[in-house]
Design goal:
single chain, alpha+beta, 2,3-Dihydroxybiphenyl 1,2-Dioxygenase, domain 1, 2 domains, 8-stranded mixed β-sheet, 6 helices, about 20% helix
């Protein structure tokens, strides 16, 4: 069975001690519906799914799990068979633990770079009205947003997403981000231009990013949503890693803001959908057609950012990047 068009990103779990800051970020800044707020957990929705983003109290200051929505029983069976064939251990979860994820049950396993991947078939849905500052977030047949991941072993990581989920390559970009030369490969599971982007350094393979993802993306319904969130986040004091600009490959307008846990969050608008009948894989030079300038410029900030990435990159050489096969 070909799993293409049967897979989509469904939810995201973040572990952080900074719940109050994340509440300001998601509810007050981006403008998402707050589904739950306690001293141990935040949860947000922006469509009928009861949970799309969760922040759980913990020390990691990082993404702790990625939910992958499998669209049919047949597709779930196929994914589980592929994982079994690769001798990848899988754990089944249901009951209260699953409900906290906004699903009836899920299967979890350790994915690339040690990120927990959680496969689910049936989300818990809600018909309660949304209370949001944005008019909407694009989901539907495309799922929600994307993750950009850095890797020291990109061939192995790309192989994982292809062999387990039948991901297809959309295109490539050569870029310098924070002083590091990168090759970026964009993968799609469905009509969304990409759900996973894998970036690797040219030459010596190192990983300059501390967190599981360099950035996470959501796509807003309208330009007003994009601009409104940009203004609110700046007024709240969140730093823009890259102000509004446009990408050359998916034509998305977007900005990148630094989250309370330190990784970046991209909010976009008007990203193209791939037409499988006439799509051609291309290689682009540069991540932006225009814009995406950092809020903080100048030599001091440049040296600070690059020093941190250099240190992270050197540290990454001391260990082996985890791969499930």
């Amino acid at each position: 069975m070909d799993l293409f068009n049967h897979i989509q990103i469904g939810y995201l779990v973040i572990q952080s001690q900074k719940l109050d800051e994340w509440q300001r970020f998601f509810h007050d800044g981006i403008g998402l519906h707050e589904a739950e707020r306690t001293g141990e957990r935040l949860a947000y929705r922006f469509d009928r799914h009861e949970r799309r983003i969760m922040v759980e109290k913990g020390k990691a200051e990082d993404i702790s799990a990625l939910g992958i929505h499998v669209q049919s029983d047949e597709a779930m069976k196929e994914v589980l068979q592929r994982l079994s064939a690769k001798a990848i251990p899988v754990t089944a979860t249901s009951g209260k633990s699953a409900v906290k994820r906004g699903v009836h049950s899920y299967y979890s396993f350790k994915g690339p770079k040690g990120l927990t991947l959680e496969l689910y078939r049936s989300p818990i849905l809600s018909e309660k009205p949304l209370n949001m500052k944005v008019s909407g977030i694009v989901t539907g047949d495309s799922g929600m947003g994307h993750l950009a991941i850095t890797s020291r072993t990109p061939e192995i990581m790309l192989g994982f997403w292809h062999e387990i989920f039948d991901a297809r390559i959309s295109d490539y970009i050569d870029e310098k981000i924070a002083g590091v030369e990168l090759d970026i490969t964009f993968l799609r599971f469905n009509e969304r231009h990409h759900s996973i982007a894998v970036a690797s350094t040219k030459g010596v393979r190192l990983d300059p990013i501390r967190t599981q993802a360099q950035h996470v993306n959501l796509v807003a319904d309208t330009m007003d949503d994009l601009v409104g969130a940009f203004r609110r986040l700046k007024q709240l004091g969140f730093e823009m890693a890259h102000e509004i600009g446009q990408h050359p490959n998916d034509k998305e307008l977007s900005f990148y803001v630094i989250t309370p846990s330190g990784f970046e969050w991209e909010l976009g608008f008007d990203a193209l959908k791939v037409n499988e009948n006439d799509w051609a894989v291309e290689r682009f030079k540069g991540i932006s057609l225009w814009g995406h300038k950092p809020q903080k410029s100048g030599l001091v900030n440049f040296l600070k950012v690059n020093a941190i990435n250099f240190i992270n990159g050197i540290k990454s050489l001391a260990g082996k990047e985890y791969s499930p096969f």
